[in-house]
Amino acid sequence: MPDNESKPAQARHIDALRDIVYQCNRCAQCLDFSTIGQAVKCPAYRGRPFESYASRGKFTLARALVDGVLDYDADLAERIYSCTECRGCAQNCFKYLDTTAIFTAMKEDLAERDLIPAPYAEALEGEAGLDETHNVYRAPHAERLAWLADRRRVDRPAETAFFVGCSSAYARQNMAIDTANTLERLGVDWTILSDEWCCGHPYLAAGETEKARQSLEHTIAQYEKLGVKRVVFNCPGCLKTFKHDAPKVLGRRLSFEPVHILEEIAYLAEKGELTFKPVAPKITVTYHDSCTLGRWLGIYEAPRQVLRHIPGVALREMPRNRGNAYCCGAGGLIRYAYTDISDRAGVERLREAEDTGADVLLTSCPACLMQFQQTRNKLRSHIRVMDITELIWRQVDLPGGPE
Amino acid sequence: MTTLLESLTAVCGAERVSDKLVDRICYTRDCGPSPGGIPDYIVRPTSTEEVARVLKIARERQTPVFIWGRSTTFIGNGIRQGCILLALDMMNKIEKIDLDNKVVVVQPGAVWHAVDVELNKLGWELAVPGPGGMFSCTVGGSVAYNAVPHGLAGYGMTGDNVVGLEVVLPDGAVIHTGSGSNFAAGNQHFERYSNGPDLTGLFIGSCGTLGVITKVIFRIRRMPPAEAFAFYGFDTYPQAVDAAHAIQRQDAATHLVGLFGGPKPAGYEQYDGFLHVIVRDAHAAAQERLRVAQAVCESFGGHPLDSTATRRYWTEHMYSWLRNMPPDFYYGNRPFMCPEVAGFLPTEAVKDAIAYLRNDAIEHAEEFKRYDIRIKCYDVYFSRNAAFLWIDTLYPELDPEAWKYGLALRSRYTDELCRRYMSPGGILQAIAPEVMTKLGPTFELLKLLKRSLDPHYLLNPGVLYLQPEAEATPEVSHA
């Protein structure tokens, strides 16, 4: 018989959400996408199959915490931090509960008790970690704009800014270049910060809300100084942090509008102000809805609208698409500590893409892109993996575009 | 000597066995308000063989085993502290869609609606709609619990459409039922009523007390080409019951749902009773049956209402649409619990039952007010020849006194209605004492069967109140 059955509870962030915790009626609709077939929603539950890894189980744990029959420990931390933050559990929640708010509160409690899993803590606080370099790739901060050849736009006043984000800046610089070039060709008067810091999402994913606040404040102060009214992102995670989290973390509204580059392009394409060259030979693509761009930000149609305007491109949907899309497995911070969960989700989703018969798997998020590229290589898959901005940049029909 | 954990791990592997509190505490209770005990071990088998080996180990160690599908019931799964929790949700494969024999063969952990969706892709469907928890409940659990399908009426009960089962008995033996029991012919499942007594029926509604269902062979049908809907309001609820009775006699509805208490459908507060009529059939037949149902309703003074609510209910299978409201309507943003009372009764008895419930709410109005108790519904699924009444009352979960009152009221309603005429479809630990003790010699036979198959009362003990009374009350450690 296992020991350590119960410990006394203390006042915690989760206690403030007691009423929400109790609202879960345990219907289990957070476990499956049964409206499209036999399909588990949660990558963590798929990878470590006990309910404690899934949303219903986490609500049970939260309830046990507020009831005082359980306390935080390393086992509980593993269940909470292995969440990819895909928000699949909130999709179709019978009671429309903000499931991730509960998980965030538990992360904040865990962080305050020094129970952040060691690989996460190392990525944040270790040598060349986020605290020091302001990026999650342990790269020198001074190299954040190393990809940018033409420096004329750096730190100049403009109404539109391009927030690069860590992944574009250091790990997938082609995405940064494609986005910047697209803005240039669209004739946008834009600016970019030489001292841009990480959006703060990794801090929030770890429960380090105060550090996230500092990171956000640092970048936002510079935008305010330059008179920025609109910030363009190519990373849904960064966009979500500014659009969804920042007002809560900072306790105020932002002075600018955060938008995704795809929304801009879709808008212009729909108005007929942007046209595309045909893709030759024709290709069939499938589109992976990034969890953040989709379930968090509700942007499902913009990428599809853009694809409809590119001649020679046929879209073939995966069975799980839009709000029902399965996570690629790279969300949250799980690649640092729970690679088995992450890898399993990546393989499952890539196989689903392959099964459509598409030539190319498109996505719109650097984390998804990297995950699929790695998975593709591991599986020696035939399917090509590409960020949608790359396809757009290749096909956009404007003077100065690529041949 | 190996420990129990080591023995279980030897069967399922370390990754599918847990003795950690953080895992165990997630397998304690169902959707209802009854508390459950915390199991000692969670075991997640992936095959019939593993289930059989786990049951043999449990028998050797004299350790109780509780079975877990998704635990989406509302009347207490009865899980006890110190048990092995056998979670079957990894056994979720659709093994065969057999269009020739019009059956689907599924493992017990397959989610009901997921199976239906796979069939729908071929133009077929399960022979009955799923129960209330169809989006997340399992097929095995629905059969074991004898769950009542949405809308009921023409398609019958869940159990009516089970062609055969594979079951692991408490001693670890694996049996098949119906035509599938012909071992010499390779256990082919195509007819239930064959090879002797109907053993399939023995396990339907037994709630895992007699064996663990490891495979379900279920009837399927082509999806009918047409669906038609009607919605009627009645000045008095007996008129609605009379209309339902007449519709039943003429088989005019595929599904028939009556609303007799709780909030009234938005915009129709002037009426006292309501009927939702759903017809599924070939095009001409659907229109003809709908016409008959409409004529019947109007002959009993029914007022035709906008049937969009009916269509939405049927399309989304969300109860709230019966009242033309979205799914969060019943609970709002407050923590409420719902100790359900439900069961079958003769159609004519619906009038008496509704009168009893309405009077009871008036007599106890002060208590209802004190505990902020809300009547969610007195609703009825009419079957082919009878009625399935369910009474949902909502209690503020955070008020311990209201919670206690709610559980007591559930017992009182169950007891009173069972004394008059009610026979519950699914029975679990929280209502078993009120129901089973009214069964007389049948209760004795069921106890004998339990004792014969599970002499040490190790499988779902206490769930159907089938063992000596002293052992039937579960220990509770987590409210």
Brief account:
The complex is a heterodimer of chains A (403) and B (479). By secondary structure, chain A is α/β, with parallel strands linked by helices. Helix content of chain A is 46%, strand content 7%.
CATH class of the largest domain in chain B: Alpha Beta
Please indicate the count of domains of chain A.
Answer: 3
The figure for the number of domains of chain B is: 4
The overall pLDDT of chain B, averaged over residues, is 94
Instruction: Using the 3D structure, state the CATH architecture of the largest domain in chain A.
Output: 3-Layer(aba) Sandwich
Main beta sheet strand tally, sense and closure of chain A: 4 strands, parallel
Q: What's the gyration radius of chain B in Å?
A: 22 Å
Number of strands of chain A: 8
- Kindly name the structural category of chain B: alpha+beta
Structure keywords:
heterodimer; A: 403 residues; alpha/beta; Fumarate Reductase Iron-sulfur Protein, Chain B, domain 2; Rossmann fold; four-stranded parallel β-sheet; 19 helices; disordered N terminus; B: 479 residues; alpha+beta; Uridine Diphospho-n-acetylenolpyruvylglucosamine Reductase, domain 2; Uridine Diphospho-n-acetylenolpyruvylglucosamine Reductase, domain 3; Alpha-Beta Plaits; 4 domains; eight-stranded antiparallel β-sheet; 15 helices; 21% strand
